[in-house]
Amino acid sequence: MSEEEFEKLPLDQLLAHKLWKARQLGYSKLRILAENNVNDPEIHDLLENPERLRKIVADPNVLSQETAIHTLCEILKRTGKQAVKTREFIVPVLVEKGIISSKIGAKNDSIECLLIYVEIDTPDPVIELMVPSLGVKNPKQVTATIKAINAIYAEFGCDVVSPKLIMEHITKMFAHSDRNVRAEASSLSVTIRSYMGDSFDVFIFPKLKSIQQKDLTKLFDKIEPGVKPKRLLFRDRERLESNVNLVQSKGDDDIVMQDAITANQEEEKFDPYELEEPVDVLSKLPTDLSSRISDPIWKERVAVLEEISKLFKVMKIKNDDFSDFIGLMVKCLKDVNLQVLSLSCSILVDLANGLKRNFERYVRTIINPLLERTKEKKRTILDSLNNVLDLCFKYGRFEDILEPIVEHMSHIAPPVKVESMHYLVRCLKELEEVPKKHEVEIIMEPAIKLLQDSQLPVRNAASEVIGVLLKMIGPDNSRYFIDKIDKRHVKKVLSICDSTTVKALRKSIHRKSPISAKTEAIPDLRNKSTVSVNDESRKVQQQHNDTSMNTSSIPSKRMATSPLKKDSIGSKSNLTSRSLKASNISNFGMASQQVKELETLRAEKLEWMSLKKNLTAELEDAKHNNETLLKDIVTLNGKLDDYHNKFTTMSMTLKSKDTQIFRLKSDLENFQTKNIQYQQKIKMLENQLKNASTSSSSATSFSSTKPVDPVNSTDLATESNDINRRISILSIDSNNGDGSFLAREESPSLQLNQSTLYNFDDNDDGWKRATAVTNDLKAKIQMMKARTRVLDHADD
Length: 796
Description:
By secondary structure, the chain is an all-alpha fold. It folds into 5 domains: 1-121, Leucine-rich Repeat Variant (Alpha Horseshoe); 159-275, no CATH class; 282-508, Leucine-rich Repeat Variant; 520-646, no CATH class; 664-795, no CATH class. It contains 39 helices and no strands. The chain has helices at 3-6, 11-15, 20-36, 41-48, 50-57, 62-79, 87-98, 104-120, 123-130, 139-160, 164-174, 179-196, 198-204, 210-221, 234-249, 252-266, 272-275, 289-293, 298-309, 323-333, 338-355, 363-372, 379-395, 398-409, 414-430, 437-450, 456-473, 475-482, 487-499, 505-508, 514-521, 528-550, 555-560, 563-568, 572-580, 585-705, 710-729, 737-750, 766-795. Helix 24 (398-409) runs parallel beside helix 26, helix 36 packs across helix 39 and helix 38 (737-750) runs antiparallel to helix 39 (766-795). The chain is elongated. 24% of the residues are buried. InterPro entries: ARM-like, ARM-type_fold, HEAT_type_2, Stu2_CTS, TOG, XMAP215, XMAP215_CLASP_TOG.
């Protein structure tokens, strides 16, 4: 069939024709039809039969599909909300085939169609229909889907399109193996983060790798502040148009009010908690938790608490009945082991942050044990307890914690009193509303009594409680309580009252600034004529009164009957109504003067606001510098303490070294004295050895002429033993110089077997043995003489 032939076919046949050119022609005619008359029956029939429209969009030919998607875009633009019923049929086809088309026009028109589907109704169904394509195996499909979702968030913003729809899938995108998918995920993260701010980091970063966090941080630094959505939903656009018409019908004040409302809407913050899916923690707790927490061995209790503490490290916890678990935590709060106490506080902090407002019903149960344990002196334990207490106030009600606090203000332990009052001060400063009258009285009664306490920290804490509370209730209501305070403490309490800052101050004390007072003194411009006439009437009345007082003696009656007097002393309503009918020229003059004055006051107000902003910034800088200096002081004090400890340690070490040196000197002197004594003994023994050698030589000469008899031999043996004993004395310690040398030199010769020396047996041949012994003795004496000469030579 030629092109001329199928051009003559009706539209229905063209749309269902086998030839792609015929279908393309039908799509073009359908687009022209929609542009000319959107209410045409053919267009209406397509909207009523979404399946037929789906087949058109899913055309197998790329060229005809491009024309079909462009036609769909025109139909959606002109039909608006009527096309909502086709969303479930068309969006999946656009995601599956349109956004991944090889034709740029088909891609762009597909994304535009998705944006229109978001625009005509709500964005949630469109995102939900697109999410399944994020899990397909084809990386090209996933990349195109992420790009389309990014376009939706970029055009409409996170105020319209909830980020919760896609946040859970972003982490999976970053874990994808294809780098194009990860790149598009980074672009989507930048878009969403530009609207969400730091809340996006809190939600996403814990689930990403460190390198991915660094890359995203670099991209986030390039985001320009003040990003605004480019498109609005149809309903928002209609509401905005109606508001614009309303604003145009009213004055400038209404425009300012509308701008303020818009600004407040733009400052809306996203809570990461609302984006997170709740985790069922209660079902994951061990079944034997109660018995393990009651274990008498403290290490077992610590182990089970460390085990379950990991379960509570989630952002959002599913709301369930934690009453039994809270009872176990109360038991742990009363545990004597500080590690058990610290772990239980950590678990309660995670539980409170996970439940948020649902934690309120457990506050009454845990507040008393927490306040009771504030008597602990360890700073880390107190910080853990205070963290739980602050969350009890944040997620609970002030009425629930007030009574326990007041009870513990009268506790027997001073630390409990002090910490209870510090906790009360923190709560009072964060309150959004001023406490009720009976609550103020409940707090003031024990606080005033504690001003007379013997402990200084207790008195200081009581003064702070009273000062903060007086600031909240205002000076008008403070006089009653100030009269009850001892005069010694009034000055300190008032100074605390003046210096403290509370949130509920503005709600309790309604003071007007000079600028606002002037502004309120100027009437609304829409009542200009009324105000001006009233002023003129008062002037006229005053002039007549002055005239009546200064001129005649009969003005009282005449002025009473004067029509002008009647007009001037009439009722306010009559005066206003009569004056409104008077002149409009004077009214116009008064109105212009008031406008100038109002503009002047507005300029002064802006100047004052700018000055206030600068002073506030300077104050914040000063506070920051003060905090920095305080931290530096604490650091320097710590270093000073370390140096002091090191100096003390070194001093003690030096003293111990001095003692050791003194002892070593004393030992050296003793050794020197002993050495001298040993040397003297050596000399004495050497002399004795010489004498013994002389006597031995004489005995040898005698024995050669006279036979040895048993008695003499016994004497000789005794003498020999005596010599051996004396010589053995010379064997002193090897460390003693000459004595050791003598012992080494003499030991071989003097180690004579005493059992054989002069050991005569009556049965042996006496003469032979005597001769042998005598010869041996002579030889030994000669050797001793030789050694004696050596020693004498050494002494010389």
